[in-house]
Amino acid sequence: MLHRIGLVCLLGIAACTTAPAGTTPPQDFSEAWSQGVGDYLGLATTTTVTTADGVSTFEFDVKSGPMCLRGDPFRMAVRDQKSDNLLIFLQGGGACWSKFCLAIQKAPAGIPKLDVIDPSRETNPFRAWNQVYLPYCDGSMFAGEADADDNGDGKLDRQQHGLRNLSAALDVAIKQFPHPKRIVLMGSSGGGFGTIPAVLLVRKLWPDPEILVVQDSGTGTGKEGDPAFLATLVSEFHVQRFFPPSCTECTTSAHLTPLLDWELARDSKLRVAAFSSYNDSIMSSVFLKIDPDVFKKGLLEATGSLHTAYPDRYKRFLTAGTMHTTMLGDVSGLVGDDLTAVTLPPDAMSALATIVIGSIDTTKLGDVTMAAWLAAAVDNTAVWQDLLAP
Questions:
Q1: What are the extents of the domains in the chain?
Q2: Are 318 and 385 in contact (CB under 8 A)?
């Protein structure tokens, strides 16, 4: 096929451009777009917009699609700081499927003041950026489009409209901030997983700027040795449309990282900064229910292959221990302030009671704090290195 294209060029039948060796053209996500990942863009309608403390909260009409896990309205918020840069933040808060449910089921108004989304925190590299904040209230990692009656009583138990929620929020974002020079797409925990499919929509709406994806304890690492686990979630959440046919490992791997690999291979303006601890207690023991050392093995292999393939564009900050998330600095960033809005299975209570959460100032590898590493990642300076604890 390559020889045929070359012949066509030489004969002057078609105009030809040749990319430099080792590079790829940006934003070549047409295969994914053709499967309809953007089908819900432009469809949602807002019912109310409220403003307080410089933050505007948008609430969406549930009849237009966006909603939380139990049918409550979905909300998102923006903070306009007249910046050329844009932070899109996907909040964490569990996951919910037929055999397990630990999830926030309501979307609060506003933007909480938590480390990387706190404009008053001096060490926050994003304190002066425009901010788009997405609460996480559907348990499907911002990607689902499924309704489920798990107990067979004829009533819906799960309304997982994550893709509709994400699309509605990005519709607001593109109207508020149409021309950012730089975009950071960041997510914690379930939101970290959500950044992987969200890249496709963000790039569709903003085709030109560089996108830095920041994953906080949601690197896409799944249940090592058990691809059926991820396949179950894919089936229940109905997220098959995110997996292009050419990404053959997307449907056979135990991890979500092959989709990120597919994206990095097709977008030279895409970079990724990934954080996790080796033995993340919430990811290993609560959600995946595997031995922490098995989680570590999968984490190192899945993320290591990405760093090897894209050493300048995919870098990790991996610490020893059991920490879960380091960019929020407060457990309320994961479970919210309203515990009545959280589904908590009994077998998760003991792990949550001992959860270790870091912050951008206290989490370190050597002399490099997470705050400094993130700042270096944004500017792509020498401090942004692939850092692994012994």
A1: 59-388
A2: no
Q: What are the pLDDT digits (tens) for 144-192?
A: 999 999 888 999 999 999 999 999 999 999 999 999 999 999 999 999 9
For residue 378, the tally of other CB atoms under 10 A from its CB is: 21
Instruction: Give the CA angle between residues 69, 70, 76 to the nearest 5°.
Output: 55
Q: What CATH number does the domain located at 59-388 have?
A: 3.40.50
DSSP state of 116: G
Q: pTM value?
A: 0.92
Who's near 140: CB < 8 A, 6+ residues apart?
A: 95, 96, 146, 160, 162, 237, 239
- By the 10 Å C-beta count (0-12 exposed, 13-18 middle, 19+ buried), 153 is classed as exposed
Sheet holding 100-104, edge to edge: 94-97, 100-104, 342-343
pLDDT tens digits, 346-355: 776 666 677 8
34 confidence band (pLDDT: 50, 70, 90): very high
197 in Cβ contact with 239 (< 8 Å): yes
Q: How many CA atoms lie within 13 A of 371 on its CB side?
A: 18
